[in-house]
Design brief:
With 229 residues, the protein is an alpha/beta fold. It contains ten helices and seven strands. Helices cover 44% and strands 16% of the residues. It has a seven-stranded mixed β-sheet, sandwiched between helices. Strand 2, helix 3 and strand 3 form a beta-alpha-beta unit. The longest helix is centred in the middle third of the chain and has 17 residues.
Length: 229
């Protein structure tokens, strides 16, 4: 029996925000759907044809006519997933290939074994992910600020890989469209007093992902937006 059969992927929907990732989104969707058949790609105003690539790879595609930001794309994906009567879990998953389906399976197994409503992925629970020292320091600072200002205690508050149970998704309302949406999401989950945990994940930092917003400067922007918010 393989890992997918052992964990069970029924009722799991991956929500993938998409903005100009035509060169990689087909492979991301194809691999994701080999494990999780339910994949919705929210095309956030792309102009490179990525939405059609995602559709041909088998994803359900929902489109924003203009670019609204990742927070808005996630909220649209949540709203779509809630229309699916089979949906029990939502996974926030990136379009650039840096997230791993094996990590999602581990998060799902943890949630079911420990009766958790939310599982956050963390880069800092093992040594598989290797951000630069400067990036790690900035991310740690963001975690410290988030833990001080929300009802949560996390090791990695700005990791885009998250598992959310349906009853939590029903109560989320993301209004921060840009980088600060991740902190808003953590803040809302903390305010709900739900059962949550963390699971180690491997984030692949490639030349491509760095060029699309995984730079040190992007991490600094996250911290600045968080404080200004």
């Amino acid at each position: 029996m393989n890992t997918t059969q052992q964990v069970g992927t029924e009722g799991v929907w991956l929500v993938i925000p998409l903005y100009n990732e035509a060169s990689v989104i087909g492979e991301v969707v194809t691999h994701a759907r080999s494990v999780f058949p339910g994949v919705v790609v929210v095309d956030d105003g792309s102009v490179d044809g990525g939405a059609e690539v995602a559709r041909q790879a088998g994803a359900v595609v929902v489109r924003h006519p203009v670019n609204l930001g990742q927070g808005a794309a996630l909220q649209t994906g949540f709203e779509f997933a809630l229309t699916r009567p089979d949906m029990q879990w939502v996974v926030t998953f990136d379009a650039d290939g840096q997230h791993q389906t094996d990590d999602v399976l581990a998060m799902l197994a943890k949630a079911r074994a420990e009766d958790l409503q939310v599982v956050f992925g963390s880069r800092f629970l093992d040594d598989r992910t290797t951000p630069s020292l400067a990036k790690k320091l900035v991310l740690r600072a963001a975690v410290g600020y988030t833990n001080l200002t929300t009802h949560t205690r996390l090791t990695d508050a700005h990791n885009g890989l998250r598992l959310l149970r349906r009853d939590v998704v029903e109560r989320l309302d993301i209004t921060q469209n840009r980088m600060a949406h991740a902190s808003e999401l953590v803040e809302q989950i903390g305010a709900l007093s739900v059962r949550y945990g963390e699971s180690p994940v491997h984030i692949l930092y490639t030349d491509y992902s760095r060029s699309k917003g995984q730079s040190l400067w992007n991490s600094v922007n996250i911290l600045v937006e968080l404080i200004l918010r």
